[in-house]
Design brief:
Blueprint (H helix, E strand, L loop, with lengths): L12 H9 L2 H12 L5 H20 E4 H11 L5 H9 L5 E4 L2 E5 L2 H8 L15 H14 L1 E14 L9 E7 L7 E9 L5 E2 L8 E7 L6 E12 L28 H11 L5 H15 L1 E2 L11 H8 L1 E2 L1 H14 L4 E10 L2 E12 L3 E5 L1 H9 L3 H6 L1 E2 L5 E5 L24 E3 L10 E12 L1
Helix pairs in contact: 1-2, 2-3, 8-11, 9-11, 9-12, 10-11
């Protein structure tokens, strides 16, 4: 169910036309016709998946042009129709056709306010800027060479009353910290229920698993603590070893795919450079300068995530990280995934970043979205820092992209590739993200 190798297969062109135009009802009826035809099983799987993909697209693109304009005018002073049209072209306002009409993504306005630096002075309700906190911590790391934080979090989910099936068994996976280069001394402090299973510390998508009959008012939650140890690595191209490893340089289908377009893009970026550290830096620079941060639809509706970023020159933290990983692997630089949460004294939320390996430095970090934000805001110190290094405000739960949960989820995951907030299902169907509230609470963040 969650392997998704059928994403390597294209859709019939008549179905694609209806999907692009947002005529989802017609596309769905045509899919049923195709499923009755004598076609290979991999295409049938792709068509069945397309039905789920359409369901998700319908959930995400919800605002008409006039509704979007009205929402933007409530948050941005003197905002005009022409400005919204320009922001569509400039990749700030994500849209799609639904029934032939321009329809905006449910987070289009949040994206404009977060990413467009020219809008910030016109916000009616300015957003809190945490950049000073990160600059202060980065200065301290560079000065002291090492910093450690103790972090205590409560995480979980709560099924909304209107979607609850009381008395039925619910299977729930909640991500928890995994042992990693920077994550130490993990402790499970308390749980809402006795867990049926806790994944080993190095499991690539680590979770705590509950299986309980649902009762009114039930939340599935865990409190955990850990230490984040960050050691500053000062990098030098002259210090790079002649011999480099070849692990983590292969394709991992369906997304880490060495397509002709991505191969040419990697070659264009790297050029004649042979030093692996400088090659990785060229890839980092290209992404942070050219791939505009953007909230995107659920990853499950994107059939090739790195190419999505490369063709559209936009993407969120995970899409940028996966493009970096793929381009590095094409260039024979080992690269891998890391994701979980950002947890600092003022904020907790989901985040993805990347790692790459250069001998003799070992595994290094690359945070493309934090680096891109620094570049947009002309903060060169922070931009340079996030190539090779990381801040201490992270909870790493995942070290692989598109890895099975354990115990395995029976139905298609809400996010088949990553796991930052958790997954849940009834015996006969998945529980969808709109059916539960996410629990992410900061209990304590302190330097030690």
């Amino acid at each position: 169910m969650n392997r998704l190798m059928h994403l390597l297969v294209d859709l019939p062109e008549d179905i694609k036309r209806y999907v692009y135009y947002g005529n989802y009802d017609k596309a769905l009826s045509l899919i049923e016709i195709y499923l009755e035809r004598n076609i290979p099983s991999i295409l049938k799987e792709r068509l069945i998946f397309e039905k789920e993909r359409i369901r998700r697209l319908k959930e995400e693109y919800i605002y008409t042009f006039n509704e979007a304009l009205t929402l933007a005018q409530k948050e941005i002073r003197d905002f005009t129709r022409e400005e919204l049209e320009a922001l569509m072209d400039e990749r700030y306002a994500d849209w799609a056709y639904v029934d032939g009409q321009v329809t905006f993504h449910n987070r289009f306005l949040e994206n404009i306010m977060k990413v467009n630096v020219n809008i910030k002075d016109r916000l009616i309700n300015p957003q809190e800027d945490s950049s000073a906190l990160f600059d202060e911590v980065i200065d301290k790391i560079i000065d002291k060479k090492e910093i450690r934080y103790h972090i205590h979090v409560k995480a979980g989910l709560r099924i909304k009353d209107q979607y609850a099936r009381y008395g039925q068994v619910v299977r729930v996976h909640i991500p928890i910290p995994q042992e990693a280069q920077q994550i130490k001394k993990i402790e499970i402090l308390s749980t809402s229920h006795n867990p049926k299973f806790i994944c080993p510390p190095y499991y690539p998508q680590r979770t705590i698993y509950f299986e309980e009959a649902l009762e009114k008012g039930t939340e599935f939650a865990v409190e955990y603590s850990y230490e984040n140890h960050i050691k500053y690595k000062e990098l030098s191209a002259e210090g790079v070893s002649r011999h480099q490893p070849s692990f983590y340089t292969e394709e991992v289908l369906p997304h880490v795919r060495f397509t002709p377009y991505l191969v040419e893009l990697s070659q264009m970026i790297v050029g004649e450079e042979t030093n692996p550290l400088l090659k990785a830096r060229k890839i980092y620079d290209y992404i942070t300068k050219n791939i505009q941060y953007s909230y995107v639809p659920q990853y499950a509706v994107i059939t090739n995530i790195p190419e999505y970023a490369a063709y559209n020159l936009k993407g969120d933290c995970g899409i940028q990280a996966l493009l970096f990983i793929t381009l590095c692997r094409i260039a024979k630089i080992p690269a891998r995934w890391q994701s979980g949460l950002v947890v600092n004294p003022k904020f907790i939320g989901c985040h993805d970043w990347a790692q790459f390996y250069i001998e003799p430095y070992g595994w290094l970090f690359a945070d493309l979205s934090f680096g891109g934000s620094a570049y947009r805001n002309k903060n060169m110190k922070r931009w340079n820092y996030y190539f090779g290094n990381l801040d201490p405000f992270r909870m790493a739960a995942n070290s692989e992209f598109h890895y099975d949960l354990y115990p395995e989820k029976r139905y298609l995951r809400s996010d088949p590739y990553d796991n930052q907030v958790g997954e849940a299902e009834y015996p006969d169907r998945p529980i969808y993200p709109y059916e539960y509230d996410i629990i992410q609470e900061i209990v304590q963040v302190k330097e030690i």
